[in-house]
Design brief:
This protein is an alpha+beta fold. The chain is about 35% helix and about 30% strand. The chain has one domain (about 35-45, about 55-170, about 180-250): Alpha-Beta Plaits, CATH 3.30.70. It has helices at about 5-15, 20-35, 75-80, 80-100, 125-145, 185-200, 210-220; strands at about 40, 55-70, 105-110, 115-120, 155-170, 180-185, 205, 235-240, 245-250.
């Protein structure tokens, strides 16, 4: 019996099995690659409902990209109970969420033990770095709490880049939002992810030269200089990045005490 288009949609909705043929799927892929798109500039960070599923995208004309990843999470899973591993991951993500949102950032993607957030506005770079330095203190507190429960300390890396980023809705058409997500594409995203790979204790926060320039212009001393000595808290690091090529980037080991000591 040949299924009608309505029968196919109902079957997919009820079973989760896709009835589209390989030919139909290839035609869809060709359409994605060949059709024209409409683009809209925005100074805000889009949410999923802000975009349609068609060939539309938004361009954030300037945004600070904050990417954070937990280090050694597999070791924590191996050396502790699954229950404790869940607790550690939840505590880590709670700390990230709080620090980012406390400083005006916008979370848009969680991926296992990593997360992607965006900061906009005139002080976006300062806000992103502030969030990262606050996060370091929270991770220090987490390690105090779990030091007798896990054999490896929680560690993390934050990479921060800035510039224009494109966003589009991708995934499976229809009303099942669990199969849809926003895709964030742009050099600043790649830079932030790549810098986060270098970051770990004690230099947990790495930034691009463009972000450092923004920090200098925004001129908030707490994210630039040691409060006691007046020295810069940033160290230059030459790196050959896949995203930028030969580059000068910056790293820091500083953190904010947050009145928790």
């Amino acid at each position: 019996m040949r299924l009608t288009a309505l029968d196919k949609r109902n079957y997919v909705r009820n079973t989760g099995i896709n009835t589209m043929s390989h030919r139909e799927n290839l035609d869809t892929i060709k359409s994605i690659l060949n059709d024209s798109y409409t683009k809209e500039d925005t100074k805000t960070v889009p949410k999923k409902n802000d975009l349609t599923f068609g060939n539309t995208l938004k361009k954030m004309t300037h945004v600070v990209v904050f990417y954070v990843d937990m280090r050694g999470s597999r070791k924590i899973i191996q050396d502790s109970t699954s229950f404790m591993s869940v607790k550690v991951h939840r505590a880590f993500l709670q700390a990230i969420t709080y620090c980012v949102e406390k400083n005006g950032g916008h979370f848009r993607s969680f991926n296992g033990d990593g997360a992607l957030a965006f900061f906009v506005g005139d002080d976006g770079a300062t806000s992103a770095v502030t969030a990262a330095m606050q996060l370091k203190k929270y991770v220090m507190e987490i390690n105090k709490i779990v030091e007798d429960k896990v054999s490896k300390k929680v560690d993390f890396g934050v990479g921060i880049g800035q510039g224009p980023v494109y966003v589009a809705k991708s995934g499976k058409r229809g009303d099942d939002s669990t199969k849809q997500d926003l895709v964030w594409v742009g050099l600043p995203v790649y830079v932030a992810v790549e810098l986060s790979d270098f970051a770990r204790s004690s230099s947990n926060v790495w930034i691009s030269s463009a972000v450092k320039t923004s920090l200098d212009k925004q001129a908030k001393s707490s994210v630039l200089f040691d409060g006691d000595t007046g020295d810069s808290i940033w160290k230059k690091e030459p790196k050959d990045l896949k995203s930028l090529g030969s580059s000068t980037v910056y790293k820091t080991s500083y953190y904010f005490k947050l009145g928790l000591e």
